């Protein structure tokens, strides 16, 4: 008998509530037509505009690393495959500036009795997605524009942990349930630079990570295939075997 599995949608929907970086163009959906036609059938069509980086999306390596892979160049093997979840939700629950540390990565390995598997997709669960789409709680500010950048507060991956993964574990991709792999108060975006410089794509603004086990599941993360793009809207699905 074939093993059954459950699919989990790890993506936020796109709408006028979608959370974007404070300087990025927000999602807009314009109606071309929606209604009954004079020929007797219903028809709807829409135009949409959006920045690359907003909602559940992919950061392609070229986003922070000159000459590295654009969205359409990221191999499918980096986007589909076995995954693990590192749960730091208890530490990050009351600390919007929490940085996932090397100790968090090592603790996962100790608890699981195995190193982070080579070729895995690593998901960081901070529980911060519980605030989405409330910008004030999720981003730390509901203001927009350049002045709002200094007001950002949300968890991320420490540069030391990013470097440890690059130096010690050959992962295919990494994602988390916050607006950025670098925490809100970062000004140098070091974790971006470290990971994307090694052609490790990043998935941001994930959701529903609380439903996933620590290991033993697969991820399918397929972005809009924008030629030369630095990022793209992303549909992420987890397959968990029962």
Quickly describe the structure.
Pfam families: Cyclase. One of its GO terms (molecular function) is arylformamidase activity. The protein is an alpha/beta fold and 242 residues long.
Detailed description of the structure:
By secondary structure, the chain is α/β, with parallel strands linked by helices. The protein has one domain (about 5-15, about 50-240): Glucose Oxidase, domain 1. Helices cover about 15% and strands about 30% of the residues. The protein has 6 helices and 12 strands. The longest helix has 11 residues, at about 100-110. The mean pLDDT is about 95. One of its GO terms (molecular function) is arylformamidase activity. This is Cyclase. One of its GO terms (biological process) is L-tryptophan catabolic process to kynurenine. Pfam families: Cyclase.
């Amino acid at each position: 008998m074939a093993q059954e599995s459950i699919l989990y949608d790890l993506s936020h929907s796109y709408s006028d509530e979608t959370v974007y970086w404070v300087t990025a163009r927000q999602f807009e959906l314009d109606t071309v037509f929606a209604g009954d036609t004079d020929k007797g059938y219903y028809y709807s069509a829409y135009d949409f505009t959006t920045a690359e980086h907003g909602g559940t999306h992919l950061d392609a390596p070229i986003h922070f690393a000159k000459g590295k892979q654009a969205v359409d160049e990221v191999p499918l093997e980096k986007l589909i495959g076995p995954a693990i979840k590192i749960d730091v939700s208890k530490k990050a629950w009351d600390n919007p500036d929490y940085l996932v540390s090397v100790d968090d990565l090592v603790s996962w390995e100790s608890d699981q009795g195995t190193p982070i598997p080579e070729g895995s997709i690593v998901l960081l669960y901070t529980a911060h997605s519980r605030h989405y789409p409330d910008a004030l709680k999720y981003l730390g500010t509901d203001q927009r524009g350049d002045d709002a950048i200094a007001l950002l507060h949300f968890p991320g991956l420490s540069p030391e942990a990013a470097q440890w993964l690059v130096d010690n574990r050959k992962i295919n991709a990494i994602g988390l349930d916050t607006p950025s792999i670098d925490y809100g108060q970062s000004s140098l975006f070091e974790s971006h630079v470290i990971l994307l410089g090694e052609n490790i794509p990043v998935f941001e603004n994930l959701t529903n990570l609380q439903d996933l086990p620590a290991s033993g599941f697969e991820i399918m993360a397929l972005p809009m295939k924008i030629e030369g793009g630095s990022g793209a809207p992303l549909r992420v699905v987890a397959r968990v075997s029962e």
